[in-house]
Amino acid sequence: QVQLVQSGTEVKKPGASVKVSCKASGYIFTRYGITWVRQAPGQGLEWMGWIRIYNGNTEYAQKFQGRFSMTADTSTNTAYVEVRSLRSDDTAVYFCARAESNYAYLDYWGQGTLVSVSS
Amino acid sequence: DIQMTQSPSSLSASVGDRVTITCRASQNIVSYLNWYQQKPGEAPKFLIYAASSLQSGVPPRFSGSESETDFTLTISSLQPEDFATYYCQQSYSAPYTFGQGTKIEI
User: Fold this and answer.
1) Cys-Cys crosslink for A99: which of A30, A33, A67, B89, Cβ 3.0 to 4.6 Å?
2) What is the DSSP letter of A89?
3) What secondary structure letter does DSSP report for B97?
4) Residue A102 burial (CB < 10 Å; 0-12/13-18/19+)?
5) Which residues of B touch A47 (CB under 8 A)?
6) Which residues of B19-32 are buried (b: 16+ CB within 10 A; e: fewer)?
7) B8: cis peptide before it, omega within 30°?
8) Does any CB of chain A come closer than 8 Å to the CB of residue B1?
9) What is the rounded CA–CA span in Å between residue A86 and residue B64?
């Protein structure tokens, strides 16, 4: 069965960096993309960007360009999102989701990783 | 960027009610419209893709339709487990934006 398992809660200070992982299993990793979605406390879903696993190409929403990096390791079937220069408004749950190749819908989701940024 | 506007932002309903949620795209997205359900503290669950195609395992009381840039999610007979927040998402042109969500409450 398809599973996406994310790394655990992170507590960081402003200015630090964090790298969240998303380990995939139950399907051929390179045949799908991985999308990252952010959800601030009490807020809706924000599409951050995605990575096409087969070639490593990435696409980011404008808001998430610069401090955010999406990567993938095909040897371990793991995708990552790194956030640098953390700010308090980066506090959110970060979800990874499998992106279907043609319609780009998100059919399987990780459980979410809470990143808390506070001094 | 394509803007997705959902309405209403919340609604009160009872078990057995027929419920309709609307999502309007700011430009033509053909049929590249998806729906998700999210319950508190959980990851979203994928319901519908291509405006009206039901994901495997999703109960048939859920349905989707489209009319140009307007898209509708209908729950024909609301069940207790359907009280949640619903999001639309366009996957026509990146960034693949979500609507702001519609919360269905008792």
Assistant:
1) A33
2) G
3) P
4) exposed
5) 89, 95-98
6) bebbbebeeebeeb
7) yes
8) yes
9) 39
Kindly indicate the confidence band of residue A102, based on its pLDDT and cuts at 50, 70 and 90: confident
Tell me the backbone φ, ψ of residue A7, rounded to 5 degrees: -75, 170
Note if the bond before B95 is cis, omega within 30 degrees: yes
Sequence letter at residue A16 = A
Share of chain A above pLDDT 70, in %: 100
pLDDT in tens, A89-99: 999 999 999 99
**Could you tell me if residue A41 is left (phi over 0), alpha (psi between -120 and 50 degrees) or otherwise beta?**
beta
Query: By C-alpha distance, which of A98, A108, A103, A115 is closest to A38?
Result: A115
Task: State the smallest CA–CA distance between residue A108 and chain B in angstroms.
Answer: 7
Would the pLDDT of A53 be above 90? yes
Please answer whether residues A21 and A10 qualify as being in contact, where contact means their C-beta atoms are separated by less than 8 angstroms.
no
Beta bridge partners of B72: B22, B65
Average pLDDT value for residue range B68-75 = 96
Q: Alpha-carbon distance A20 to A70, whole Å?
A: 10
* Alpha carbon separation from A65 to A8, A19, A58, B3 (Å, rounded): 24, 16, 11, 19
Q: Which residue of B has its CA nearest to A61?
A: B95
Q: Show the beta-strand stretches assigned E in B8-101.
A: 10-12, 19-25, 33-38, 45-49, 53-54, 62-67, 70-75, 85-90
